[in-house]
User: Which sequence fits this backbone?
């Protein structure tokens, strides 16, 4: 293994550890979504018991509470890991100079980003397994109806949330400052992401905002593929929006990083 490859592996491990070693990050990345499943699942019971509760989507499908809960909490997980944790961690590294020191080595911005992406993808896999195992044990929730499609959708959602985190991380310094910026945004993303409660009958002014909320497209794509077994062709619009967001914000963030640091 080359020196650069070893550096990439070590950097990926470092990024992965940063996603769970911080107690606040661990709470939002893992514990909080599982608590939501336990609380709302306890209110509604099994998927079969919650069917027919008056929830109907735009295509006329009758929805269970878990059709909202499972994709919604998966979106919460990847957003917490990609947006909240990465932004706060990166802002802290900028404040203490460790990011500048790291990027003064032969490691390029591209390699740093690749390691960051790999760490978050691995984290998303762990989150998804924990979410469905937990829900299956407590409420007899079935595995994803379209597992390959779910993996692709979660990957795109992870990239979108990660791009938001890196973008914010390039603009602010210090963990406290980053937390003050990202937490209000995170709460809005959860509320308007169809992740905690149905927004099908929300007021008109909320309905108008939904197409502009990334987590809304995450949960819509996940719900179609994960819970109803739809193919990726059914969620091309959502994937295009999230992919465009990821490409745009990552491009801007990496350009800013190249300006901020001397890269070899």
Assistant:
């Amino acid at each position: 293994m080359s020196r650069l490859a070893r550096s990439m592996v070590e950097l990926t491990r470092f990024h992965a550890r940063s996603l769970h070693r911080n107690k606040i990050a661990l709470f939002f990345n893992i514990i909080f979504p599982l608590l939501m499943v336990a609380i709302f699942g306890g209110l509604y019971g099994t998927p079969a018991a919650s069917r027919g509760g008056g929830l109907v989507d735009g295509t006329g499908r009758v929805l269970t509470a878990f059709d909202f809960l499972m994709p919604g909490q998966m979106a919460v997980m990847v957003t917490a890991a990609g947006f909240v944790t990465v932004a706060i961690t990166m802002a802290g590294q900028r404040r203490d100079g460790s990011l500048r020191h790291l990027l003064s080595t032969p490691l390029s911005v591209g390699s740093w980003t690749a390691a960051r992406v790999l760490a978050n993808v691995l984290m998303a896999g762990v989150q998804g397994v924990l979410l469905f195992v937990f829900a299956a044990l407590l409420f007899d929730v079935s595995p994803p109806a379209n597992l390959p499609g779910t993996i692709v959708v979660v990957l795109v959602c992870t990239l979108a949330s990660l791009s938001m985190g890196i973008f914010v991380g390039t603009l602010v310094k210090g963990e406290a400052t980053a937390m003050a910026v990202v937490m209000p945004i995170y709460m809005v993303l959860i509320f308007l992401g169809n992740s905690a409660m149905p927004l099908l009958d929300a007021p008109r002014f909320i309905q108008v905002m939904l197409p502009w909320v990334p987590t809304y497209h995450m949960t819509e794509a996940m719900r179609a593929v994960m819970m109803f077994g739809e193919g990726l062709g059914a969620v091309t619009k959502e994937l295009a929006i999230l992919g465009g967001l990821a490409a745009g914000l990552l491009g801007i963030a990496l350009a800013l990083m190249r300006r901020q640091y001397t890269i070899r």
About this structure: The first helix runs from residue 3 to 18. The chain is about 75% helix and 0% strand. The two ends are 21 Å apart (CA to CA).
